[in-house]
Amino acid sequence: MLPILKKYALLGCLATTLILQSCTQDKNGDRLIFSIEDDINLGAQVSQEVDSTYRAKGQLLDPANPANKAAYDHLNRIVNRILSSGKVSYRNEFAWDTKIIKDDNVLNAFATPGGHIYVFSGLIKYLDNEDQFAGVLGHEIAHADQRHSTKQLQRQYGLSILLSVALGDNPGTLTQIATSLATLKFDRDAETEADAYSVIYLGGTNYYACNGAAGFFEKILSGDQQGRTPEFLSTHPDPGNRVQNINNKAAADGCKTQLSGATTYQDFKNSLK
């Protein structure tokens, strides 16, 4: 559909929504005007801008550079295990590509709408084992897969502006989104749901401890942060509650909670030196 026709169609859908409350229902049971195709288009626009921003700072590790091959082999192996769990709704629709941002002072990861995943080297080096890291990745994959990122951006910028970004018509807002996505603040319900889906995804791997994300928060509780505050705590600051909720979900699901015993995580960390 041509962009101008799509805009009119979406306006018509919006008008109908005032009566019917929705145009489409997605795989997660949500009724959103913003379609999956819009998620994909928005994510493509945003990821290009994020890449450009961090590349200009000299912080984006190029996946095509042979010097970074080992690091990306480790990262993609872990991500692919999660995506192959059979629990990710938009496994086949979203991009699910990965990028590493070289900043050892940042304990963070994030995913754009449409499933473009970014991980800071500081987070990788901070964690103790692959199960903890897989738990964090599961949490971020959930934000994209459950469309939390889209919903939050829509609340923040409004539907019409976000659609203009998805269509490539609003470069100014695109830059704002790209520079702020790493610190995008979700509400507590979204954070709690992402934690729960991390358990579901990891449980589906039959490899990782399904409560791997709890290990991340337990490490935070140990106080070993060296003055760095993870963005994960920006909207839901009680890691103790999150550990309990994650472990309760794991117990309710009856999924594996023993560590995988993966032995290559230190090699992954060493590949970033």
From TrEMBL:
InterPro entries: Mito/Outer_Membr_Metalloprot, Peptidase_M48. Residues 74-248 form the Peptidase M48 domain. GO terms for biological process: proteolysis involved in protein catabolic process. Keywords: Hydrolase, Metal-binding, Metalloprotease, Protease, Zinc. PROSITE patterns: PROKAR_LIPOPROTEIN. GO terms for molecular function: metal ion binding; metalloendopeptidase activity. GO terms for cellular component: membrane. The keyword Protease applies. Its cofactor is Zn(2+). Binds 1 zinc ion per subunit. Belongs to the peptidase M48 family. This is Beta-barrel assembly-enhancing protease. It comes from Adhaeribacter pallidiroseus.
